[in-house]
Amino acid sequence: MTMQYPDWIWHNGRIKPWAEATTHVMSHALHYGSSVFEGIRSYETPNGPAIFRLTDHNRRLFASAKIYEMAMPYSLEQINAACREVIKANGLTRAYLRPLAYRGLGGFGLSAETPTDVAVAAWKMGAYLGDGVLEEGIDACVSSWQRFAPNTIPAGAKAGGNYLSGQLVAREARRLGFGEGIALASTGLLSEGAGENLFLVFDGALHTTPVSAALLNGITRNTLMTLARDAGIPVIERDIPREYLYLCDELFMCGTAAEITPIRSVDGRPVGTGKPGPLTRRMQELFFGLFDGRTPDRYGWLEYVG
Ligand code: PMP
Fold first, then answer.
1. Which CATH architecture does the domain made up of 8-124 adopt?
2. Count of helices and strands (H, E) across the chain
3. Ligand 1 atom at minimal distance to the Cα of residue 155
């Protein structure tokens, strides 16, 4: 995906020109993957631009930093304010935000006490997995790469290093001509997509894999579980073996970037009718309805840019 760089970025406490947000080549994070980050979307709403679940995302940023004992030099409120500031500075409405905290320059070695540098970027972004995928769906494959075992790298942290695994899964899928790859956990059971959680539909109920399946506890996943339960749609969190990908009535991926992307086939086998199904459509309506007012914002998830 090509990216059109915006003019401004927030870096270490202030808005600066995009090109000036640089770091030294000896920064810890570049060598050891020691960064934590978030992906957040803002949407145009009838009450102006809003950042979706801004506080929940940045809470997860702090949780990821806590897992890695990374001292955060700013408060949650300051990072939230930085997100709003960078949207405003670039005149954005529908955008993707990327808060990032990383071990910078200072000392040498794995346990070096480096300073934590923090940046927040935001730019215009459409559908992550390609034009038209939200309507038509994608063809997915099960990756030959597994997710890391739970006692190796914590999947519950959204850390830069985790995305070496994601890159292997996503790159293999694209090379083989698929829209996205799905990974199994080290148990052999289903985990998640390269950068998305999974929902399978059986008999009108949503089934999703549990956090013990080496996945990131997605905020979109939580959003959909909440919206479904509120609408009386059963939601079941459970271990799921691979072959159920081939047997479910409907299948979709979800994430901040991917939003709700239907999956029309897995490993060459059609999912259900081979077209996005009715519950997938319903979940898209409920989700996107949050931004045009069709779905009431009962939980204060829309945090207005102001
Ligand atoms: N799993 C992985 C590995 C991800 O990178 C993402 C995207 N952040 C997700 C799941 C979905 O999480 P969320 O809905 O919070 O964006």
1. 2-Layer Sandwich (3.30)
2. 8, 17
3. 3
CA pair distance 109, 229, nearest whole angstrom: 48
- Give dist(CA 143, CA 170) in Å, integer: 8
CB of 192 sitting under 6 A from ligand 1: yes
Q: Which residues contact 158 (CB under 8 A, 6 or more apart)?
A: 36, 37, 38, 60, 61, 64, 216
Residue 66: half-sphere exposure toward Cβ, Cα within 13 Å: 8
Answer yes or no: are the C-beta atoms of 51 and 303 closer than 8 Å. yes
Write out the two tokens for 153. Answer: 């790298």
ipTM for the whole predicted complex goes beyond 0.95:
yes
Distance, CA of 270 to CA of 263 (rounded, Å): 9
At 219-244, the pLDDT tens digits run 999 999 999 999 999 999 999 999 99
CA angle 119, 91, 77 (to 5 degrees): 40
| Binding site membership of 276 for ligand 1 (Cβ less than 6 Å) | no
Q: What is the pLDDT of residues 15-62, one digit of tens each?
A: 999 999 999 999 999 999 999 999 999 999 999 999 999 999 999 999
Whole-number CA gyration radius for the chain:
19
Enumerate the domain spans of the chain.
Answer: 8-124, 133-292
CA of 234 to the centre of ligand 1 (A): 22
**CATH of span 133-292:** 3.20.10.10
